[in-house]
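Marked as duplicate of an earlier ticket. Keeping the data here for the record.
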Amino acid sequence: MLQISNSISLPDNEIELSAIRAQGAGGQNVNKVSSAIHLRFDVFASSLPEFYKERLLDLKDKRITKDGVIIIKAQRFRTQEKNRDDALERLQELIKSVAVVNRKRIATKPGRAAKARRVDSKTRRGKAKQLRGKIRDF
C-alpha cells in the first residue's frame, strides 16, 4: 500500500515493479545482477480520484506516456530493495506534486511612494548622464 495523503493510498496491485539490469559502470557484477527497478503505473486504470488523474495527464513530463502510463526507472543504488523504495518514493512525489494548487496571482498597482522613488532615480540617472556630454566653451 503506497500512502499518498491521509485519505488517498494506492494498492500494491496497481503498481507494476520489475527488476532489470542496471546501466553504466559497475564492474563484473553489473552483468549478472538485476538491481535496477522498472516501475509502471497506469493512471487510467488506477483508483486515484479524477482530480489527480486529470492533473497527472496534463503534466508535460517525459515519464508519462501518451497512453497514461507512468514509467520510472530507478538504478541509483546498488541493491534492488533500495531502488524499489526509490522508485516508489519518486512515484509518490510525482502524485503529490499535482495535488498542490497554486494560488492565482492578484495584480497590484505600485503605490505613490514607489512611483516617486522611481521617478527620482530616473532624474538622478539622467543628471549623471548629462555630465558625460561634451564640454562647451562659451
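See parent ticket for discussion. The mean pLDDT is 88.
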